[in-house]
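Field reference: sequence -> structure
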Amino acid sequence: MRELMNRKSLLLRLTVFTTFWLVSVLLYYPGGLSVDSFLVLEQANSGIISDGYSPIHILFVKALYNLQSSYFLVIAVGLLFYHTGIFLISYYLFRHSLKKTVLFSLFFLTFPPIAGIMGALWSDVTMASLFILFIGLILTSLEVDSNKVYFSILFISALVLFLGMSQRHNGAAAALPLCIFFSYSLISRLRTKKSYLLSFIIGIFINISFFVVATSINNLTSVDKKNYWRSVPLYDIAAISCSKKKLYFEQKIISETSLSNICSLYSKRSYLPLAFGEQVHAISDKEIYKGAPVYFIDSIVNLNEKIIANWLHAVFNNFGYYVYHRFSLMYSMLTGSQWGLWVPVYNEIPPNDFGVDESSTYSSLYFMLMRGFNSIPVLSYPISYLIISLFVFVISTKHLLRDNSERYFITLILSMSSITHFSGLFFFAVSSDYRYAHWIVLSGLLSSFLLLHPRRT
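Structure field:
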């Protein structure tokens, strides 16, 4: 009788899950596409893949796009990944309460700082969806009795984790704690005594291995080498030059420019004005400026080695200015800006040459409500969720050292993922887009929820 009741309960939950996913697909249709989205679609369609975006992300988009020649299939599948992960997490937490399952799912499926960009074709969104699916799978694996089923779930979760971290070049930072979570599940299965230290050691090794494999695949599949990583040293050296009022670029490797041109183009919002040669982040007439783009000269022999040497010299000799520049960019990303890049709600399709019809959801009640909510500073700013993650991390560490509870290890891992993702952005981000901080919001909220609402067995 109990088995029959469990089956009915699971069937009902699956019905609710399917309904939520279908409603989400309808609400987000026709999805959100930006300039970056169209560039990814163009490469997926042509097969000429550059290293500007993660080639694995482009191959992922290409595989789905070719099934139906529809970009929205990519978005719908991403939503399916996310909804499946939320379903598995909710079932792990509330398998005896359908009401709590529904409330938990509704919150994480509709909370505006999370849901506002879930309908956009962005690698950040795909990464977050796959990470949530991975977390759901690993939590499920901890409850499985059959070794055959367990190792099947573990294999799938490994593929999901690898695919998730490979969606972005900087995905390995956020994935590091999740790799530790993966190794913890494996060790817990193979050993009678839990070892958190061994989980950390093996997890770090897995993370490095995944990163090496992903980098190798990206290098082999990208045929159009853009070397966009150079934007990081270019942006940092420009910032230091403006702060010190001295040109820190090695003259032989940089385009013809001047300190005045660089400082007129430099912005704490992103490196784009330097690349465009125009101050596109101006908020007053006084800041409007058109000059010469700043770039490294490709024809220079051993250019990459010279860029790195120039970069390290400028940073280590002006470390305080470098840190101030990086904190300024992070402040812009985590607290919002009044123009351009900081878009916590996006589901638009601008005019384009790709043949996709222009679309806007500004009149949609769902998106109007989300935009209204995201106008509340404290609740919509990613910095709030980074602070929450730090608190959860400290509390979880304290309790874990005291009573060795699996619950606190899980919340430690999730809060840590938010923090390591921020760390990766701190050193390598060159733009203050909201979507870069999306995982900070999601993992921070999930870790705090699991801390405040322990699972009832």
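Note: Residues 2-28 form the longest helix (27 residues).
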